[in-house]
Specification:
A: about 300 residues, alpha/beta, Rossmann fold, five-stranded parallel beta sheet, two-stranded antiparallel sheet, globular, B: about 325 residues, seven-stranded mixed beta sheet, five-stranded mixed beta sheet, 12 helices
């Protein structure tokens, strides 16, 4: 099946506006310099992902790379977090529901200064703070434990409820995989978030179209996905998850949306950034070989030089 | 057998009242529910503190993860429903989102055991102690009666980390008083004795006391221990009982597979092996019936505890 067909826009696709007052930081009228710096940072994170999973000879590079631009936009332009004080009470919360994509999270946290970049090479090794799937309390900056799919959005609902009870302005961002749209609990959470009108909650669905054993539409058809989220009373946006301007504009619109949580269906490419890994089911949960590592890093170098 | 004049009281009522009192003292206490809130008496908390009460519908996995998220943001959530839903249906959510995270979630579940009664086996949760005590970092409480259920609420809130507490739908004999101490991790010797030890939890503690009365008339002095904390197990008190009385009978409204009998037996085996007898559900599902009828049919009676005590003493022989 052609992936572009799978990921065709929802019928009632909302276009992301090009203008609007950013709620806290300018997210729409952003400079070319900012976009270029985010692109460079994303290349750096992708190199970390490739190296970490190669070094471990395990892990999940494909879904880490598809979520990479969303995570980059959040950690390097949007989230109010303090690497020196990871448990600062008023920080924004980032929840990674698709826990297997933690290489991208660890890479972002390291680059953001939560822990040394050198530590990334301990990923999946014994005595490491960087577990194969995220562990709360061990890794500075990690906000939730995930691995069993489908729990992160519920966890985010709890966070957002607490923020509202305390009249706090911090926001909660949750990144979900499209595979975990299969999980019943995801939809339990979707109902609860709309029941309580949690407009401080933004969910990104990393719609790369591939899960462990194949195409999402073959394993368990998800489409029409945007309409599902709309039916659950969410404000729904569909974007190109590799376009920083669209990512930032979607976040900006989520900030401006009152009374409803926002779901951003981000159309992405599994393994994005390395040609031979893109859209390959294999790289959901397989590391590169020594030869592939060299090829991948060379491609990413080329990409960086072209920015 | 004499039945002492114990009044029968609802553990749920004590639970609901204690929760409201705790809520008054501590504004961080919140409650999440799953369409059973009136039945388990958390709805009263919701009426008293509507902004701190979240009705999440028949979606227990979501309820448990929402509780974890609330705890991660500094709240002390009580997640309450029937024990079959609050343990088995949510097991991996509790494991990953509550225990692995070591978050401050208090899971308080009613309708444990056979005495759920006419609703039948689907609702008679006889395996929850086994499930919960298998999870690292989890504290497991089984209060003996109403007053102790209320104390569990305060005690659970005062410790950091996940707690699972289970109690009964049926009214149970009140065998403790408001003044009795309750400390998590401490088994309480309800009655001293040197010939054999009866270790019970939940409503079976009263049956252990009744069994001890019968044994006393035969000249057998039984020590009775209320094991209201199943985990962390009070190994010292169990070990002392093994050494001083030479034989132990456990009694639980729960399967004997991985229940308190198994917990006590492994502690005894590791420290000072003595014969152990187990009274509990014998690895079967329950069925519809009235609470007392079911306890009798499945062998959860004072008579069976007496029989088990005789058996333990016979197996022990002259050794002690």
């Amino acid at each position: 099946m052609d992936l572009s067909e799978v990921l065709k826009p929802a019928r009632r696709l909302r276009t992301v506006p090009g203008h609007g007052a950013g709620a806290r930081r300018g997210l729409v009228d952003v400079s070319e310099e900012l976009i270029a710096s985010l692109k460079k940072k994303a290349v750096t994170l992708r190199k970390h992902i490739i190296r970490m999973t190669h070094n471990a000879q395990s892990g999940h590079p494909g879904g880490s790379m598809s979520a990479c631009d969303i995570v980059t936009a959040l950690y390097f332009h949007v989230l109010r977090v303090d690497p020196k004080n990871p448990t600062w009470r008023d920080r924004d919360r980032f929840v990674l529901s698709k826990g297997h994509a933690c290489p991208v999270w660890y890479a972002a946290l390291a680059e953001r200064g939560f822990f040394p970049v050198d530590e990334l090479m301990t990923f999946r090794k014994v005595n490491s703070r960087l577990q194969g799937h995220p562990e709360l309390g061990t890794t500075p900056g990690v906000e939730n434990a995930a691995g069993a799919e489908g729990q992160g959005l519920s966890f985010s609902v709890g966070l957002a409820l607490a923020a509202r009870m305390d009249h706090k302005a911090w926001r909660t961002y949750c990144v979900l995989g499209d595979g975990e749209q299969d999980v019943g609990q995801t939809w339990e959470a979707a109902m609860a978030a709309s029941k309580y009108g949690l407009d401080s909650l933004t969910a990104f669905i990393d719609r790369n179209g591939i899960q462990q054993e194949g195409r999402t539409e073959d394993i368990m058809p998800l489409e029409p996905l945007a309409e599902k989220w709309e039916a659950f009373n969410w404000h729904v946006l569909t974007i190109d998850g590799h376009d920083f301007r669209q990512i930032l504009a979607a976040i900006e619109e989520a900030h401006r949306t009152r009374g409803r949580p926002t779901a951003v269906i981000a159309r992405t490419v599994k393994g994005k950034g390395v040609s031979f890994m893109e859209n390959k089911i294999k790289y959901h949960g397989a590391a590169t070989s020594d030869e592939e590592l060299k090829l991948a890093l060379a491609e990413l170098d080329g990409m960086e030089a072209a920015i | 057998m004499t039945v002492r004049p114990w009044p029968l009281e609802s553990q749920r009522t004590y639970f609901g009242k204690a929760l409201i009192e705790l809520g008054r003292r501590n504004p961080d206490v919140v409650v999440v529910g799953a369409d059973t809130t009136e039945s388990i008496k958390t709805l009263e908390f919701g009426k008293a503190f509507p902004d701190r009460f979240f009705q999440l519908g028949i979606a227990e996995p979501n309820m448990m993860s929402v509780a974890a998220g609330l705890a991660a943001a500094g709240k002390i959530p009580f997640a309450s429903t029937y024990s079959v839903f609050g343990s088995a249906h949510t097991y991996n959510v509790i494991r990953q989102n509550v225990a692995y995270t070591n978050l401050n979630v208090k899971i308080f579940c009613s309708h444990a055991g056979l005495t759920v009664g006419p609703d039948g086996a689907t609702h008679q949760m006889n395996e929850d102690i086994a499930l919960m005590r298998g999870i690292p970092r989890m504290t497991v409480l089984v209060p003996a009666d109403g007053p102790e259920t209320g104390k569990c609420v305060d005690a659970a809130a005062s410790v950091k980390g996940p707690v699972y507490c289970r109690f009964s739908r049926t009214d149970v004999p009140t065998i403790t008083s408001a003044e009795d101490p309750f400390v998590i991790g401490q088994a309480r010797v309800m009655q001293d004795g040197s010939d054999v030890t009866l270790v019970g939890c939940g409503l079976m503690v009263a049956r252990c006391l009744a069994a001890a009365d019968t044994l006393q008339r035969e000249g057998i002095r039984a020590r009775v221990i209320n094991l209201s904390t199943v985990k962390p197990l009070d190994v010292a008190t169990i070990d002392r009982a093994a050494r001083e009385t030479g034989g132990i009978v456990t009694a639980e409204e729960h399967t004997i597979v991985h229940g308190i009998g198994a917990a006590v037996a492994s502690a005894v085996a590791e420290n000072h092996p003595v014969p152990v007898g187990m009274v509990g559900v014998r690895d079967v599902f329950g069925e519809s019936g009235e609470a007392e009828e079911l306890l009798r049919k499945y062998g959860l009676t004072a008579e069976k505890i007496v029989d088990a005590a005789h058996d333990v003493m016979k197996r022990r022989g002259g050794r002690k």
